[in-house]
Design goal:
The chain is mainly alpha-helical. It contains 15 helices and no strands.
Length: 345
Amino acid sequence: MHYCKTSAKLRKIAQKLVLLQSKYIYMGIISFLKKWTLPSSLLIGAVVYLLFVKIPFLVPSGNILGPIIVHIIPYVLFIMLYVTFCKIQIKDMRPRKWHFILQGIRIILSGILVFFISIAHDANLKLILEGVFICVICPTAAAAPVITEKLGGSIASLTIYTIIANIVTSIIIPLFFPLVEKNADLSFLTAFSMLLRRVLVVLVLPLCLALLTRRFAPSFAAKVKERKNLAFYLWGVNLSILSGITVANILKSTVSGWVLTLLLILPLFVTFMLFAIGKYVGKCYGDSISAGQALGQKNTAVGLWLTITFLNPVASVAPGVYAIWQNLFNAWQLWYKDKYGYLKW
């Protein structure tokens, strides 16, 4: 009898230890995901995609769920931006000089690339240049204010810049694309209306709703503002989906090894170049964080859509990979700020 009681106690102790261990493992995983949200999202998106295309019994489910998951991106983005915009003071939403300087730089860089594309006779070289071109001409990501807030920049300033950048993109895309691809069936009014509609739905609508909430429902806006990292984690969800799309484009690519390698590596150099230029210009006006994100963090979803629809679809590898490089760079920035309390660069 004594032996049975001892065994029962030992079993209970063992069960408690297992539960305690499971709890610590769970807390450790959550802590890791919070600390490394961006690279974790990239990895999860890639792994999940590979599982659903490589494991036979998961393929049918992947074919059904894939399009559904892709279609939720705008809705997650809308909620994410609404949460972020609830923190904006309307008095801070005014254009700055560096907003227009960076737009001018983006247009000049895009124009230079268009010139080299127009004189390129080698098909592979033209393809590579198109990939770089789309990385440069892409407008600022709607999610940029979310990362900017985490890094300590100005949400309001970057929001205004993002709206300006998207409007400018709506103008220069129909001007440049016919020069890049002679067969691009793209009229000015068609491109302008399509891009502007995206800006209004994805960016302006959540901004207006957030400002109305601050004005007429301040208590609700205050509760939304308390959820400090909600928008950031929602961006992690969207990033996982974009990561899966990028992996899909890489695996489906039919170009030679060296061309694919350049399409994977060149966006890394473009990433650092754009962030460096943005930070340098912003530093001159006391806002290097916001300006760096403004020029460096691109709306690669728009880039993918534009490339697949109007340019060489194979070049869509470049903007997809750019999204990976820019988020790895932001992850390093967030890690450094969390560890040392300031940004090194």
